[in-house]
Amino acid sequence: MTDYTGQCLCGDVTFTAKGEAKRVSACYCGMCRTQNGGGAFHGAELRGELTITNTTGLKWYASSDKARRGFCANCGSSLFWQSNINPTYFDISLGVLDDVSNLKLEAHIFVDDCAPYQTVPNNAPHLTHADVLANPLQDQS
Ligand SMILES: [Zn+2]
Ligand SMILES: [Zn+2]
């Protein structure tokens, strides 16, 4: 178990998370692209407990019946993806973590959904939609 801390750009959302990093991934699905300024969502996929220590700016958006996405309503930072089915399964955007020195990208996911202008680097395995759905860790939406 590792402790993670972080905050959004303006500080209106701060958090701590205790968890086991299951995987560090970059998601190329259309929803992540729309939410994250046209790029992939780089996230640490964790199993554990997410504690929001400053909720002032936090908003949750139900992006599907399976999951919700947390962001800061003040500065717009994309923060979290959290499963509704199992809330102990969540992703934290690598961009809002205080310390990413021990995190290494392990997978590019939903690569078959990437936009024509995107190039998926070859620094980690490429997983398609079908690959992701075949793995119970990755019930993303
Ligand atoms: Zn903020
Ligand atoms: Zn995605």
Features:
141 residues, mainly beta, binds zinc ion, nine-stranded mixed beta sheet, globular, Metal Binding Protein, Guanine Nucleotide Exchange Factor, Chain A
Explain what this protein looks like in three dimensions.
By secondary structure, this protein is mainly beta. The chain has one domain (2-138): Metal Binding Protein, Guanine Nucleotide Exchange Factor, Chain A (Beta Complex), CATH 2.170.150.70. Helix content is 8%, strand content 43%. The chain contains two helices and nine strands. The chain has helices at residues 30-35, 129-133, and strands spanning 2-7, 14-27, 41-54, 58-62, 67-72, 78-83, 89-93, 107-109, 126-127. Strands 1, 2, 3, 4, 5, 6, 7, 8 and 9 form a nine-stranded mixed β-sheet that branches. Strand 6 and strand 7 form a beta hairpin. The longest helix has 6 residues, at 30-35. It is globular. The two termini are 25 Å apart. The relative contact order is 0.24. The mean pLDDT is 93. The protein binds zinc ion (2 copies). Residues 8-10, 12-13, 57, 72, 74-75, 77 line the site of one zinc ion.
Beginning-to-end CA distance, first to last residue: 25 Å
The CATH class is identified as Mainly Beta
Overall shape: it is globular
Proportion of beta-strand residues: 35-45%
Question: Structural class of the helix and strand makeup?
Answer: mainly beta
Catalogue the ligands: zinc ion
Gyration radius, rounded:
14 Å
Order of helices and strands: EEHEEEEEEEH
| Assembly state of the chains shown | single chain
Low-confidence stretches: none
Number of strands: 9
